[in-house]
Write a structure and sequence with these properties.
alpha+beta, globular
Length: 145
């Protein structure tokens, strides 16, 4: 479940929101992390891509006030979902994990891939047509939230 800035999730669980810091750049997979944080109301402070604390100096790299450091967009998305999403069982986590992996491998190429223009989003194609059909039925991909 998404967490409001007040720290109350849609399911009522309290989570202390700490501003995560993201070293990122629009022409990387960082926008996937920005998008998740926007949708889930997770406070996010953007940092310059360089220097990045990533072991190889790459982005995205996320750190928070709890001393956690995560790199690679998929790992960052799963960490944020675990921290702010109320995923307290493997069954609940599976509902979200499949979409994180899909976005990281498929949607990333369409929205943020070569050319970085986003023009593939509006181009006809099975992937976007299927996604649009799903979102026409529900604003959210998982459990209506």
């Amino acid at each position: 479940a998404a967490v409001s800035r007040s720290g109350l999730s849609r399911r009522g669980a309290r989570t202390r929101l700490q501003a995560a810091r993201l070293h990122g750049h629009p022409q990387t997979r960082s926008p996937l992390v920005n998008w998740y944080c926007y949708e889930a109301n997770v406070p996010l402070e953007m940092r310059d891509p360089r220097p990045s604390p990533h072991p190889f100096g790459q982005v995205p790299h996320l750190s928070d006030d709890g001393g956690v450091e995560v790199f690679e967009s998929g790992a960052i998305l799963l960490y944020l979902a675990d921290k702010y999403g109320g995923l307290d069982s493997p069954e609940k986590r599976a509902k979200y994990t499949k979409w994180v992996m899909w976005a990281n491998s498929t949607l990333e190429e369409i929205c943020f891939g070569p050319g970085m223009s986003g023009t593939k989003v509006s181009a006809p194609g099975k992937t976007m047509d299927t996604l649009e059909g799903m979102l026409a039925k529900s604003e959210w991909l998982v459990d209506g939230e």
